[in-house]
């Protein structure tokens, strides 16, 4: 046990560990991930965690993960996760024990599970990210329920129509029904599927 603790402390001192640091807003433009942000489309960085090998760049549109193979390799893989297409859930924050050097935030983004170690001295800042992700998760959950209710309502309406005789040209009836269904689903997506969570980040992130 003592050997493991000393090993971790030595690794951190020598710069061999992968404990992330929260980057100040004035340095956002200096991280690698900034090169891949869609500034032209209004995307904005709100929070950045940078470790020896990885960057986690949180924006109003989602998460940009600059994935490094290891601390010494220059090879990087850029992965984008967007709130519009993927849900955030199971957000947890693990604080440090007496001898721990790091704290940890965990969450699912779509099908991927993230577990990010951060310097324990930056707990207060990480709490802000935790609250923002929890709020986003709750909003997405409510939106998902609303979309499901809307889809079920549409199915019931179509079933009711199919059981009744409709007057008119069958081709026109089918075209009108298909157009109505498309517009209904499009309206559901536009109403209950947020693309931009900038307001949530501005509410919780104290930049």
From TrEMBL:
UniProt domain Bacterial Pleckstrin homology: residue ranges: 14-136
Pfam families according to UniProt: bPH_1 (PF08000), YvbH_ext (PF11724)
Domain of life: Bacteria
InterPro entries referenced in this protein's UniProt entry, alphabetically: PHb, PHb_sf, YvbH_oligomer_dom
Ranges where the YvbH-like oligomerisation domain occurs: 153-207
PANTHER family: HYPOTHETICAL CYTOSOLIC PROTEIN, YVBH-LIKE OLIGOMERISATION REGION
Protein known as: Bacterial PH domain
Source organism: Romboutsia hominis
């Amino acid at each position: 046990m003592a050997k493991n603790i000393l090993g971790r402390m030595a690794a951190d001192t020598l710069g061999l560990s992968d404990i992330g640091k929260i980057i100040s807003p004035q340095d956002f433009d200096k991280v690698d991930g900034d090169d891949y942000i869609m500034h032209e489309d209004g995307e904005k960085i709100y929070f950045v965690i940078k470790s020896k090998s990885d960057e986690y760049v949180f924006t109003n549109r989602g998460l940009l993960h600059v994935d490094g193979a290891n601390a010494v390799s220059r090879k990087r893989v850029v992965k984008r996760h967007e709130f519009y297409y993927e849900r955030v859930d199971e957000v947890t924050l693990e604080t440090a024990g007496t001898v721990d050097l790091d704290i940890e935030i965990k969450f699912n983004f779509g099908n991927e599970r993230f577990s990010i170690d951060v310097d324990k001295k930056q707990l207060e800042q990480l709490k802000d990210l935790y609250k923002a992700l929890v709020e986003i998760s709750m909003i997405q959950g409510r939106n998902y329920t609303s979309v499901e209710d809307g889809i079920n309502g549409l199915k019931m309406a179509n079933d009711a129509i199919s059981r009744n005789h409709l007057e008119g040209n069958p081709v026109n009836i089918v075209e009108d029904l298909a157009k109505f269904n498309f517009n209904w689903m499009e309206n559901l997506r536009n109403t209950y599927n947020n693309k931009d969570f900038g307001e949530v980040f501005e509410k919780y992130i104290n930049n």
